[in-house]
């Protein structure tokens, strides 16, 4: 009877722990419903069709960055250079559209597809440079990408001496017209940027769940040494995730420049904070090894709706920055609590089966 009395009280505790753990896992959806409910009541016309479409476009841009950031963080790294890559990619596209590429006494003009390709390759190259610094020179990811943040931002400013490239409609003679369509085209009444989000989201999910490189990303983030001993090419994996992050950042820069028909060197400032916040809020662990693209996209919706809702309520941009910082801190705290809860449940389960 004493053994029975010792075992019986443990069952309710296990059920409560499981319920709390479930709430932790659903925290992103809970946060999404909370912000939608709050701003629906506090901001007039928040759920109007036009406003919802605008918010969806903003969310898509943040989601692109957050998808790349997710795999970087899952691999055990961080990428602070994505915001500057956004600005640099837009500036390079604007320069090529307006001025071509001067080579001596000649000017090489590119068509719009070549310009988009060059800007995307530039983003991939920046990500590759980050990867080389981290894998070959053993520079800490935070320091390497922080340095690249300044390099890319400085390059964006140097291209135009800090000025804006406006009127990016292109030149008929150079076949560089049509750039604004990237940001304004709406096949079947749905903005192209949302179609791109669906395609990239599905591709990124497939990469993580169904491909060897995806499994290797999680293995490297979970235990880099064990992954290396298992035959995983750790350096290649890290190069891949940073190149993906850089390429997606360049895509965001192109879309913003096409929407505005202008490129500004300071475009993308603090975008890295939104991307990190969306990834962490979506369940990506800052310690690496854990994260899902679906959760990240939901996290991007939370951050995007939060930002647009605060703007509609007339909240100062300074307070918006403070609130985003609080969101990041809260997300990390909850993530740590979830990990502790998961370990406790594992111990309880092992004790019950013993």
Task: Write a concise synopsis of the structure shown.
With 354 residues, the chain is mainly α.
Description:
The chain has 354 residues and is mainly α. The chain has a domain at 59-299. Helix content is 74%, strand content 3%. The chain is built from 15 helices and four strands. Strands 1-2 form a two-stranded antiparallel ribbon. Strand 1 and strand 2 (106-108) form a beta hairpin. Helix 6 (112-135) runs antiparallel to helix 12 (234-260), helix 13 (271-281) packs across helix 14 (293-312) and helix 13 packs parallel to helix 15 (317-353). The chain is globular and about 80 Å long. The protein starts with a helix and ends with a helix. The model is unreliable at 1-13 (pLDDT under 50).
